[in-house]
Design brief:
The chain is mainly beta. The protein has helices at about 5-10, 35, 70-75; strands spanning about 45-65, 65, 85-100, 105-120, 135-140, 145-150, 160-165, 170-175, 180-185, 190, 215-230, 230-245, 250, 255, 260-270, 275-285, 300-315, 320-350. It has one domain: Autotransporter beta-domain (Lipocalin), CATH 2.40.128.
């Protein structure tokens, strides 16, 4: 992502999709480059890993600044129909299994488990009351991804190309076109508050907040890394993810998730082989969701994160890492919940 790196790598690293932990309606961003965190390994054989991502979207934002719930509710006082969200807590565990037959090729399977809590005041008007709040819990398998990597273009194995697919394995859906039933596969519903008091499909959680999107997406990306000074390695990588088929395609009950793009760059200090500090800059952009079940006005935006972290060698075949992501810029379309910070930690073992 950074122009001071190899120009060809910069052109190839043109953006993209991120871990499936970021499937909430707001542009929450979970754009950490875990490949960079673990050092773009070329080791052959099998590797298993487990990653935990914690994203608490507890701040309403509009454009590039925070906004109070009362200000959003005032839109409804003036005759509008604007949802006043309260909080969305995303906790995702992602199991990954990868295999490299040689230094050039790698295939990786990502299986996420989503644990998401969501609360909203719906279209409440001022003064907002706790009695207006409704809550939901979304738990279950997320959308599985399979990503292949080829890094045999340069002798140093420093330039890689990625191609993958996201599958509609998680529960997804919403109300059908006439509101008389449900479309999709086991979408979650509100369990508390006014939205849980009606047994009709109107109590379903927004389609964009379900554990899955119901879409099959393609993933393309690239990365480049190289030593820049002494024990410092620099990197740039990006991915782009876009839906090519949607299971929610009925007229009046359709949904297509917005395209997502990430671009990350940073540096890693390797003087100590057991502990490697790293600093990343992560840029995340999400296009607006589309369709009758989409929250189109409140689902697009761009976020930039500054992400310091450490990678540890626990044993000769075991690595661990921990990172914090601190938002330094955001421009969100509409009124969206955003995190004040996010955290990621993981461990991987080769065998």
């Amino acid at each position: 992502m950074s122009p001071f790196l190899h120009p060809a790598a910069f052109a190839l690293a043109f953006a993209a999709a991120v871990p499936a932990s970021c499937l909430a309606c707001a542009t929450c961003g979970c754009s950490l480059s875990t490949d960079a965190a673990t050092g773009f390994s070329t080791a052959t054989g099998w590797r298993v890993s487990l990653q935990f991502d914690d994203i608490d979207q507890n701040q309403l934002r509009h454009g590039d600044h925070p906004i109070s719930a009362a200000q959003v509710a005032a839109i409804n006082n003036a005759g509008g129909d604007q949802e006043v969200e309260h909080d969305t807590v995303n906790r995702t565990f992602t199991f990954a299994l990868s295999y490299s037959p040689d230094e050039d090729w790698n295939a990786k399977l990502f299986v996420p488990y989503v644990d998401r809590g969501h609360s909203t005041f719906a279209a409440a008007s001022n003064p907002i009351s706790g009695a207006d709040a409704s809550g939901a819990s979304i738990k279950g398998l997320g959308d599985i991804r399979v990503v292949g990597t080829f890094q045999g273009l340069l002798p140093a194995k420093s330039l890689g190309l990625q191609f993958g697919v996201k599958l509609p394995s998680g529960h997804y859906g919403g109300p059908n076109a006439d509101g008389s039933g449900v479309t999709g596969r086991h979408p979650a519903a509100f369990h508390s508050g006014p939205l849980a008091q009606n047994a009709s499909p109107g109590n379903l959680v927004d389609t964009s907040l379900q554990a899955g999107t119901g879409s099959t997406d393609l993933i393309v990306g690239a990365f480049y890394h190289r030593p820049v000074a002494g024990d410092v390695d620099a990197f740039v990588n990006g991915q782009f993810q876009f839906a090519i088929a949607e299971r929610l395609h009925q007229a009046g009950a359709d949904f297509r998730p917005g395209n997502t793009a990430t671009l990350s760059f940073g540096a890693r200090y390797k003087a100590n082989p057991d502990v490697a500090p790293q600093l990343q800059v992560n840029l995340y952009h999400k296009g607006a969701d589309q369709g009758a079940l989409a929250d189109n006005p409140d689902s697009a935006g761009t976020v930039a994160y500054l992400s310091p972290g450490l990678t540890f060698s626990v044993a000769s075949n075991v690595q661990a890492f921990g990172f914090a992501q601190l938002p330094v810029f955001s421009h969100l379309v509409g009124y969206q919940l955003a995190p004040r910070w996010t955290g990621s930690a993981g461990v991987s073992m080769a065998f």
